[in-house]
Amino acid sequence: MLDSSKMREERTENMTAVYGNKIPKRVPISISLSSAILADYAKVDRKAVYWDPSLLKGALNELSDRIPSDTALYYGNTYTPVSTQTLGAIHKLMSDKGYMQHPNTHCMEDTEYEELSKDPYAFILDKCIPRLYEHLDPTLYGGKAIAALTQESIMQQVVRSKDFSMIAELNEKFGYFEGFGMGGFGRAPMDWIGDQLRSFSGVLSDVRRHRSKLIDALEASYAMCYKIALPPDLNNINRNATTGYQLHMATYLRGKRLCRSMVADLETNG
Length: 270
Known about the structure:
There is one protein chain. This protein is mainly alpha-helical. The chain starts with a helix and ends with a helix. The chain is built from 13 helices and 4 strands. The strands form 2 sheets. A two-stranded antiparallel sheet has the order 1-2. A two-stranded parallel sheet has the order 3-4. It has helices spanning about 5-20, 35-40, 45-50, 55-65, 80-85, 115-120, 120-130, 140, 145-175, 190-200, 200-210, 210-230, 255-270, and strands at about 95, 100, 180-185, 240-245. It is globular.
């Protein structure tokens, strides 16, 4: 059996080949399990794991022996109460059973599109953030908003240090590929407005009821969404690092029906 360093070297070569558009010696396998799945396997409280991921260490070591993967089986969490609960978020909540949920909430009314288009940055800071995060609303908490931000930052560091430490141990022990780093992450304007501002059902309604204002908002938000997705260091770009860019809203729009509706709108309004 190969030792961990040789296994990592082989896995890195295969991953580098795939990212470089070359044929690898074999197809890499990358399996990532959520903390909820791992918590159930480990028979620990799903809610507790968000605050102390080290509770999963025993389960991860056991599963790493059983499941073939070229990368560590644990990737952390996209949403956690470490941030959402600390900041009083209303759009990312944890259920009674310990699952993070993205309810169909909104922080922008359909009458506010023109304000968004005029200055997306100002609208987000002045209107959206206080509505999404109650603890950051100065009219409710005043200067305590600064304390909430500080508390959230400290808790993120504490939890992430446990995450990184555990993943580093797994990489060392099992010779996992350690990754090329993250190039960036962003959302297409339609996904961003739908997910964060208007809600899923709200933006689909706006496609029919406020199409021209929605299109103007998409155009106005594009530069900001583009900048958010840029790599952290443009002078030292890792060509193998990936940039995630969400494009899921389009799959919920009926193309033929949408096109016919847009043509009819153009014929009516010029």
